[in-house]
Amino acid sequence: MKATIAELPKYVDKEVKLGAWIANKRSSGKIAFLQLRDGSGFVQGVIVKSDVEEEVFQTAKTVTQESSVYVTGTVQKDERSPFGYELLVTNVELIHTSTDYPITPKEHGTEFLMDNRHLWLRSKRQHAVMKVRNEIIRATYEFFNENGFVKVDPPILTGSAPEGTTELFATKYFDEDAYLSQSGQLYMEAAAMALGKVFSFGPTFRAEKSKTRRHLIEFWMIEPEMAFVEFEENLEVQEQYVSYVVQSVLKNCQLELKTLGRDISKLEKITAPFPRISYDDAITFLHEKGFDDIEWGDDFGSPHETAIAESFDKPVFITHYPTKIKPFYMQPHPEREDVVLCADLIAPEGYGEIIGGSERIHDMDLLYKRVEEHQLDPETYKWYLELREYGSVPHSGFGLGLERTVAWITGVEHVRETIPFPRLLNRLYP
To answer: Nearest 5°: CA angle at 33, between 30 and 35?
Structure first.
């Protein structure tokens, strides 16, 4: 019976054959232990010398790290194993011998591991992070599909910028200027006017020269947009979505979280509703905490967000930021011209902002005024302005950064471990 490691619990006391790589091995005179991986998981294979042919035992003793093999054996329960099962091996067939595999069980520097990212992905820790990332994506599709959203794919090449052109990668589009998208939001607003509730999931690019543990040059965003939805309801969708994703990971990635050493008691608290603090109150709070460097009208940096988040054991919404530090499309507060109907969702444990969202301006005249105030070309944004000309409605949306969310849920230190092949300020390889 051919099987994968993930399927082994279905075959207890039965013989199976699986294709695998040798993640590690150790042996004594009479027994050999092979740490096997096949992409679906990791399992230990045990070969007892007296139970197999001499040739099989010698192969098990001499096989090298990351060599590929076919292994035949009987599945057994093993309470000592994190997986809960092991394989009593009866045969090992060598497919390909790996020589001088560069990533050994010893410690390696970050730059070395990043240069070998194509191989580093094979490690148990990186495997666990990628499995959690996959579960977050799976749960995202499930949540939005179950709640009546339609998946829409905005373009990656755009002729305009939703948040100004200072952090864009420019390219030539035949005889025109084009940019790599920093957000699909404006296009999702158009989609929401056609389909009601929509979401996108795709790559975005920021030409921001930042080296912090929270930043990537290329990252993935989940961007829902909803017609006939105002500010408060938008926040409710966000907290329900994030809660749903965290609970899905807790349910379906227990082994991966254990591999990563994640304190799941902190994740178990992540259920809606989430606490909220206004920008005004956040400024007051930070002054009380000794942050004299921040003034009303300043944007928050990582230390400020972390200080605020530490007061809560759930993600916290910071609401109603000053108009002047937010993008042109955000709806003003009905009673205050100086703040807008927006919120950033700050993750606990120092992971920073994972969602930015707002109610969008739906008044044609006000949006046109904002375009001019931000010195944007009305002709370039003509199609966007027309969304307010033909049946405009109140609408809201948000964007969740996948990699920061993966970092928070897995507990890894740096976002470079949360994407298969990270693009950083000084890294375009591999």
So the answer is: 170
